[in-house]
Design goal:
Blueprint: H1 6-15, H2 23-43, H3 47-62, H4 70-77, H5 80-87, H6 90-93, E1 128-136, E2 147-152, E3 172-176, E4 182-188, E5 193-194, H7 200-207, E6 213-214, E7 217-223, E8 230-236, E9 255-256, E10 259-261, E11 275-283
Parallel strand pairs: 1-11, 8-9
Antiparallel strand pairs: 1-4, 2-3, 2-7, 5-6, 7-8, 10-11
The structure holds fe (ii) ion.
Fe (ii) ion binds at residues 103, 105, 217, 219.
């Protein structure tokens, strides 16, 4: 159609949808155009602001590398990641779920480990942590043979992919639930960490005067054919950033009870000082078992000497 005035632009774009053969693609694109145009009208976007917005979107790609995904980061910082997660889990968002954002740091092919094994692969100072987890269905029945991928930041707040001083795949491991649906591992207590602020996500946080921390957590990805795959994060209950997580990932159901033990014998004889334990049960619901595409594919290189 020939556009005569600003109101016509939306209709002109929507009219071009009729050739789109895939009905779902058509639905999504039509809604995107309607909402995007309504947004531009609502905020009365100026030409300079539009130019700036285009620059931010281009920078999301420019800041994305094999070891960092800026697009995933800003989706979290805008609450979109957790909204998508909560709408698609817990009986389509109607009840509590252990599902949570995948986050930007999952790597495929983490080493397989026996239950009770350690995921500490290079010297990683910090209080020892012993985790006992269970995977169950909605009726509380044990799910045996579920693959449980685990990853976390070190006590200095860096994932191994961000930190050349950590061994390849440090604080990452893949466990399999036993006949009772149980898995267990040894690690170190994770720390909260700042998300990177050198890209558009940093600009967003600064514009809102928000901090860039995430509360300490453990990541899980649980896969078992016949059940809906979930990514999960279990948050450390004494963390000061639980209510202001810069990625809006914390839900009530996912605040773990990290028990501090002092002057008590630890499950391993080499533990010195205080140590922590965590027990947590993940419920899976029926659905599609699939593995997401890893947001990153390799470890950051050490800077040139
Ligand atoms: Fe994380």
């Amino acid at each position: 159609m020939i556009i005569e005035k600003q109101e016509d632009v939306t209709e002109a774009v929507l009219q071009e949808m009729h050739r789109t053969p895939d009905p779902r693609v058509k639905e999504i694109l039509s809604a995107l155009v309607r909402h995007l145009h309504a947004f531009v009208r609502e905020v009365k976007l100026t030409e300079r602001e539009f130019e700036k917005a285009v620059g931010y979107i281009a920078a999301l790609g420019q800041h994305t590398t094999p070891s960092h995904n800026e697009v995933m980061l800003i989706c979290g910082s805008l609450g979109v990641s957790n909204l998508v997660c909560l709408m698609n889990n817990g009986d389509s968002g109607t009840r509590e779920t252990a599902a949570n954002n995948l986050g930007p740091f999952w790597r495929a092919d983490s080493p397989r480990c026996d239950n009770g094994g350690s995921i500490v692969r290079s010297p990683t100072p910090g209080p020892a942590l012993f985790v006992n987890g269970w995977v169950r269905d909605g009726a509380g029945r044990a799910i045996a043979g579920a693959e449980v991928d685990v990853w976390q930041s070190s006590p200095v707040g860096l994932y191994e992919n961000q930190d050349p001083s950590q061994a390849e795949m440090n604080l990452r491991g893949k466990f399999t639930t036993d006949a009772q649906g149980a898995f267990s591992f040894r690690s170190v207590k994770p720390s909260g960490y700042p998300v990177p602020t050198d890209g558009p996500t940093g600009a967003l946080l600064r514009a809102q005067k928000r901090h860039n921390f995430r509360p300490a957590h453990l990541h899980f990805l649980i896969y078992k054919p016949g059940f809906k795959t979930i990514a999960s994060q279990v948050y450390v209950d004494d963390d000061p950033y639980l209510e202001t997580d810069s990625q809006f990932g914390v839900t009530k159901a996912l605040i773990g009870n990290f028990v501090r033990h002092e002057n008590e014998p630890a499950p391993a004889t080499d533990v010195e000082g205080c140590w922590y334990s965590l027990a947590y049960t993940f419920a899976l619901e029926p659905g599609e078992s699939w593995l997401p595409k890893p947001p990153i594919s390799k470890k950051a290189a050490a800077p040139a000497a």
